[in-house]
Automatic annotation (TrEMBL):
<protein>
    <submittedName>
        <fullName>Siderophore transport protein</fullName>
    </submittedName>
</protein>
<feature type="transmembrane region" description="Helical">
    <location>
        <begin position="132"/>
        <end position="158"/>
    </location>
</feature>
<feature type="transmembrane region" description="Helical">
    <location>
        <begin position="408"/>
        <end position="427"/>
    </location>
</feature>
<dbReference type="InterPro" id="IPR020846">
    <property type="entry name" value="MFS_dom"/>
</dbReference>
<feature type="transmembrane region" description="Helical">
    <location>
        <begin position="252"/>
        <end position="274"/>
    </location>
</feature>
<feature type="domain" description="Major facilitator superfamily (MFS) profile">
    <location>
        <begin position="34"/>
        <end position="432"/>
    </location>
</feature>
<keyword id="KW-1133">Transmembrane helix</keyword>
<keyword id="KW-0472">Membrane</keyword>
<feature type="transmembrane region" description="Helical">
    <location>
        <begin position="320"/>
        <end position="337"/>
    </location>
</feature>
<feature type="transmembrane region" description="Helical">
    <location>
        <begin position="202"/>
        <end position="220"/>
    </location>
</feature>
<dbReference type="InterPro" id="IPR036259">
    <property type="entry name" value="MFS_trans_sf"/>
</dbReference>
<keyword id="KW-1003">Cell membrane</keyword>
<keyword id="KW-0812">Transmembrane</keyword>
<feature type="transmembrane region" description="Helical">
    <location>
        <begin position="71"/>
        <end position="91"/>
    </location>
</feature>
<keyword id="KW-0813">Transport</keyword>
<dbReference type="GO" id="GO:0022857">
    <property type="term" value="F:transmembrane transporter activity"/>
</dbReference>
<feature type="transmembrane region" description="Helical">
    <location>
        <begin position="100"/>
        <end position="120"/>
    </location>
</feature>
Amino acid sequence: MPFARLAGKHFWTRKVPVARLKRLSTRARGQKAALLALASVPLIMTLGNSMLIPVLPGIQAALGITPLQSSLLITVYSVMAILLIPVAGYLSDRIGRRKVIVPSLILAGAGGAICGWAGGWEGVWTGAGDSAYGWILAGRLLQGMGAAGAMPIVLPLVGDMFRSEAQVSAGLGLIETANTFGKVLSPIVGSALAILAWQAPFWSIPALCALSLLLLLTLVRVPARRDGAAPPPPAKQFLAKVWRLFRINARWLSALFLIGGLAMFILFGLLFYLSETLEKEHGLHGIRKGLVLAIPLAVLCTASFAAGKAIGKRKAAMKWIIAGGCALAAAGIAACLPLEATAVRVACLSVAGLGIGAALPCLDAFLTEGIAKEERGSITSLYSSMRFVGVAAGPPVASLLMRSSVSLLLAAMAACAAAAGALALLLHAGQGQPQQDAQRAMLLAARERARRRGGAGAR
């Protein structure tokens, strides 16, 4: 917050000391710098995965592998994130955010360095030779482990840094903007780096992770646990609590999780298809290819930003935007079936991106508005894992379906989008109210305790 604004009429009439105004101004600037440092984490983690999509055909040619094998470079990264995001969230509550996010960034950078080393560099070193593919898979696995411990920890850390809901919402908005901007930037950056060599995107990952780590260590101060805050429960109690909460909200949470997973499955499957088609059928390489791939992603991100601004807390509107967005995505993909011109298909897939982009922030908001604040971290980490299931499955499934025909792939993706729209109808504006969740959870826990006492007495 600028000093001039703090020193305006409101503060002046209250006769706030100038020294205090300067402290407030310095603190505001420090918080803004800390937010920008935190925003570098999702930006870099998104780049580290998505920028490989335009490079996959070049990796296939260099290593002599199949499209399915190259798609696994995306999948192994996502699988590790699926498995470890909930674990990382729990550990960050137990041992502290910094103790999880710092080693995670180091691990992600090390994974990228292993991938770059294994690929070698013409005229400099030979790399891992015939076993290069296996080493690159191992490096991507380490990268996924690092991403699981870095990216989701940013969200609760923003909540720790601010006390007011307005500041937290603004901070989370900046984090989400960085995430979506990374998606738009990734095909362009990946294609530009691949001009140097197909290994160059891998080598950029440790450099970017080092930059993010430097920003975090110098600009972000993790606040101490607030007085009176309850310590996190033991692992067994934590799992029982999460399971109980999920049972109470099983219908709408299951629908929400499936829609999020299907949205990512469709998005990454279609990006893989478009990347393969542009390079192998139309000879597009480098930045030109990246710019074409960025078109549907730019539409998606614009729609996501606009929908996030518009929905507020209107849960009924969220439900119908999700359903309508999925229906629009299904229509856009289905329109590609009779139209074979690549430019027309890119336009149709951009329409699909518009629908998916409108749905995604509504899914996030429906989840956060429907779960009590103290329970939100565990459920959102599971939701993040479910989205990574879609990221992991999209490219290999697209590769397998493309072996039969592109029409089969497009029909399957359109059907998935239609199914997601149907699932959205299971959401209800009255479901998942935080107060109701808390009361029902307490009632169910009391019943469980009474049942156990009764069983112990019978014995």
